[in-house]
From TrEMBL:
The gene is mmsB. Residues 195-315 form the 3-hydroxyisobutyrate dehydrogenase-like NAD-binding domain. This is L-threonate dehydrogenase. It is an enzyme of class 1 (oxidoreductase). Its EC number is 1.1.1.411.
C-alpha cells in the first residue's frame, strides 16, 4: 500500500483522488471559471498563475501595485476585482494573516459583500481554527460557501500548482471550489467541517517551525565543529536527521541568500497560533515555545522581512560565527 493510500485511510473521509494524474487532470479541464486571487505574494502569485495555466479567467489583487501589474503582463485579467466581484465563481484569499483576511472579505472594500450567492471563498492564510469558523459563518450568512484551506509546500510548489491543501468545508464548497483546487494543488485533503483545515495546518506549523529552527541550530553547531554548510548539506540529507525544511531552507543559508520566500515574520504568527490553541487545550508544547523564541530573536534583530532561514543568524551571532556571505 502506498503512503498516500495509507493517509487516505487514516483520515477516513473522502478526499481528492490521490491516484489520479494531476497534470492530466489540469490539462483536461475545458471550462473557464472566473477566479480572483487576492494577495499576490510568495504563495498567492504562484496560485494565480496556476489558475491561469489551467485556462481560467483570473483576476489578481494586491495592495502593492507591482505584483498586480506583473500578473496582468503574465496574462491576468485587467480591471479591479470590485468591478467584477458579482460575476466571480471563486475568490482565493492568500494574504498574510487573520486581520488581512478579514479586511479583504469584510473591510470597507470587502469582496464578500459583492460576491454572488453560491460562489465560494477559498481562504488560504494560516489562521486559528476559531477565526476560520467565524469567517465561514459570516460568508454563509451572505449565501457564500467557505473553504478553510490552508496551504503547504512553499513558493516553489505554489508556482508549479503542486501545493498540499488542508481543506475543510461543505461538499458544496468543495464542488464549487474544485476548478481552482485542481489548478493549484497536487493533493487536497478533505478534513471535515470548517476549522479542521486550520487545526491540521497548526500541526504542520508546529513541525515546520521547529524543523527550521533546529536545522539552523544543527548547521551552526556543525560549523563550530568544522562542518561547513556545504558539507552539512551533502551528508545530512542522506542521513536520518534530515527533514523537508532542512533540505528546503538549508541551501538558503549555504548560499547566503535570504530573499524572502517565507518570511521570519510568519513564525511569530504561526507558532503563536499553535501556542494559543495549545494553551486552550492545556497542552504543553516546550519545543514550539523554544523555536518561537528563536524567531522572535531574529525579528528583534531586524530580520523579520528576510527568509525564515535567517533564524540561523541568531545562532551565528551567539556563537560569533560568520555565515556564508557574511565574511
Ligand atoms: N511563504 C510560504 O512558504 C508559505 C506561506 N503560507 C501562508 O500563506 C499565507 C501567505 O503567505 P505569503 O504568500 O508568504 O505572504 P506574503 O506576505 O508574501 O504575501 C501576502 C500578500 O498579501 C498582500 N496583501 C495584504 N493585505 C492585502 C489586502 N488587503 N488586499 C490585497 N492584498 C493584500 C500583501 O501585499 C502581500 O503581497 C500566509 O498566511 C502564510 O503563513 C503557507 C505555506 C507556505
Ligand atoms: O509550506 C509550508 O507548509 C509552510 O508553512 C512554510 O513554508 C512556512 O511558510
Amino acid at each position: 500500500m502506498s503512503t498516500r493510500s495509507i493517509i487516505h485511510q487514516e483520515l477516513s473521509c473522502p478526499r481528492w483522488d490521490p491516484t489520479s494524474n494531476n497534470a492530466e487532470r489540469k490539462k483536461s479541464m475545458t471550462t473557464a471559471t472566473k477566479i480572483a486571487v487576492i494577495g499576490l505574494g510568495a504563495m498567492g502569485y504562484g496560485m494565480a498563475k496556476s489558475c491561469l495555466r489551467a485556462g481560467h479567467e483570473v483576476w489578481g489583487a494586491d495592495i502593492s501595485p507591482n505584483p498586480v501589474e506583473r500578473f496582468r503582463a503574465d496574462g491576468g485579467q485587467p480591471g479591479d476585482i470590485q468591478d467584477v466581484a458579482k460575476t466571480l465563481d471563486i475568490v482565493v484569499v492568500s494574504v498574510l494573516n487573520a486581520d488581512q483576511t478579514s479586511a479583504v472579505l469584510f473591510g470597507p472594500d470587502g469582496v464578500a459583500c459583492s460576491m454572488k450567492k453560491g460562489s465560494v471563498v477559498i481562504a488560504c492564510a494560516t489562521v486559528a481554527p476559531d477565526f476560520a469558523r467565524e469567517m465561514a459563518s459570516r460568508c454563509n450568512e451572505r449565501g457564500l460557501h467557505y473553504l478553510d484551506a490552508p496551504i503547504s509546500g512553499g513558493a516553489a510548489k505554489s508556482a508549479k500548482g503542486q501545493l498540499s491543501i488542508m481543506a475543510a468545508g461543505s461538499d458544496e464548497a468543495f464542488e464549487v471550489a474544485s476548478p481552482a483546487l485542481d489548478a493549484m494543488a497536487e493533493i487536497v485533503f478533505r478534513l471535515g467541517d470548517v476549522g479542521a483545515g486550520s487545526a491540521m495546518k497548526a500541526v504542520n506549523q508546529l513541525l515546520a517551525g521547529v524543523h527550521i529552527a533546529v536545522m539552523a541550530e544543527a548547521m551552526t553547531f556543525g560549523m563550530t565543529q568544522g562542518v561547513s554548510p556545504e558539507k552539512f548539506l551533502e551528508v545530512i540529507p542522506q542521513c536520518a536527521g534530515t527533514s523537508w525544511m532542512l533540505e528546503n531552507r538549508g541551501p538558503h543559508i549555504a548560499a547566503g541568500d535570504y530573499t524572502p520566500l517565507s518570511q521570519v515574520n510568519i513564525w511569530p504568527k504561526d507558532l503563536g497560533i499553535v501556542l494559543d490553541i495549545a494553551r486552550d487545550a492545556k497542552f504543553s508544547a516546550p519545543l514550539t515555545a523554544a523555536a518561537l523564541q528563536q524567531f522572535l530573536a531574529a525579528a528583534g534583530m531586524g530580520l523579520g522581512g528576510e527568509d525564515d532561514a535567517a533564524v540561523a543568524k541568531v545562532y551565528a551571532r551567539n556563537a560569533s560565527l560568520n555565515l556564508p556571505g557574511e565574511e
